[in-house]
Amino acid sequence: MHHLLLVCLGGAIGAMARFFLSGFVARRIGETFPWGTMAVNVSGAFAIGVVAHAVARDGMPAIWAFTVTGGLGCYTTVSSFSLQTLALARDGEWLRAGGNVLLSVFLS
């Protein structure tokens, strides 16, 4: 039960962080390309790597539950990436759709 609460708390924090960062990036750079989602996914992938390296040695399940499963699980998103890529392709923005896929995969 303790780990479930950590996942829930981390998830709430991760979801809020995603909301604010993706919105901030979209307002600063613009919404013609999903830069906000990309910023979230790339920074989340980096953070998961850092946490995995730090926690793997000592096997800290509580920290893993809070940061990776909860926080970063809600922070990063493949579903938004997929939806935005599909929307770009549907609108005939094939170069941007392809760029979104390539950059997201390469940078993550």
List keywords for this structure.
single chain; about 110 residues; mainly alpha; 5 helices
How would you briefly describe this protein structure?
The chain is mostly helical and 108 residues long.
Detail the poorly predicted runs: none
* Total discrete domains: 1
Tell me the strand percentage band.
under 5%
Helix tally?
5
End-to-end distance: 32 Å
* Biggest β-sheet description: none
Task: Let me know the average pLDDT.
Answer: 90
- Calculate Rg over CA atoms: 15 Å
Gross morphology: elongated
Number of strands: 0
Alpha-beta classification: mainly alpha
Order of helices and strands: HHHHH
Describe this structure in words.
The protein has 108 residues and is mainly alpha-helical. The protein has one domain. The protein is 85% helix and 0% strand. It is built from five helices and no strands. Helix 2 runs antiparallel to helix 3. The protein starts with a helix and ends with a helix. The mean pLDDT is 90.
